Amino acid sequence: MDSIQLLLQEVKQIKDNRKSRGQRYRLYNLLSIIILSVIAGADDYVAISEYCKSKKYFLLKHNLIDGRNYPSHDLFRLILQNLNKEQFSELLANWLNRVIELQDLPSSIDGDLPQKMIHIDGKSLRASRSGRQHTRSALQIVTAYCSNNSVSIGQSIIDKKSCEKTAIPQLLKMIDIKNTLITIDAIASFKQNAKLIFDLKADYLLALKKNNKHLFLEVESFFTNFEDTSLIVDVFQNENKGHGRIEKRKCRIISDLRFFPDLKDWKGIQSLICIESQRTLNGKTSNEKRYYISSLKPNAKILASAIRKHYLPRNLGGTVKNELHWSLDVVFNEDRCRIKHKQAAANFAAIRRFALALLKNAKLSKLGIKNQRLQAAWSNDFSEMG
To answer: What pTM does this model have?
Structure first.
């Protein structure tokens, strides 16, 4: 059974709330066309409609159109505006789980690091804001991204009355995080979230900044005054060169938490981490220290690698910024998408993340994501088997 038949099986589970009278197209056919067209390069409703015409015989082969009429761009717009965004996002994840062999995850370095790493990060769809309003009026999406297989396994929409602080706990409860390492930016580094993650049988690695003022100052002071003492239980350092840049990083860990009274309510915490980085670019050198807390046992090499996966910026190899956000903006033009309707924008965002994961895991092509989208548009075999 090819991937398109698997897709049809999944989308048939979505209830069609339209009146049966006057229906010309089945909902599952329309949703399948939308997904296939986005994979093949469509970025708006008109492009989806044109995809139907240009791929007429391919869609006829799979009984997605009747060959006499073509769905209009207005029909696709109405479908995405009225589609339940939570149900649709979950459905795409289910299909992806069946198409991609998720069980073939790379093994961990040792028993301390869970096999699976899930990074929770927020992103704004800049062009979705209304008129000349502030960027904050744009749709905000929090995504759970699994770096082991480049799959977005869930997303949560931040409404006007909420923020990342409230959206992230909701997302954590929606997805299965058992036996994983969860990484989150400092905006959600709170003891309540640490407890939630630990109670769900997962580990956490949280950035520590001045929004946790007293704890941050305590940790900063200890690493500054005791960096060369026996309190530092493990150290790991490495050096990277590339593109005219030299970066040296040193990871230090403190595991004796008796001197930190503010940590008593942080459930499961075992390690305090300091990453000291020195970057030299064009003859100029800069130094920076960043701090993290984790429920993992102190292992500087493992924790430094896990931190690099999430928290580094794109140009320094950070996984979330590079593999997810950069790809969505550059390859899928997400920041230029001017869909204003929040429900439709959320559904379109879910399709983009799904398409990105599918293309990254495509076994028939070694091309980049941009050229794979072209290949999906040109080759019917790639669309059926990719």
So the answer is: 0.81
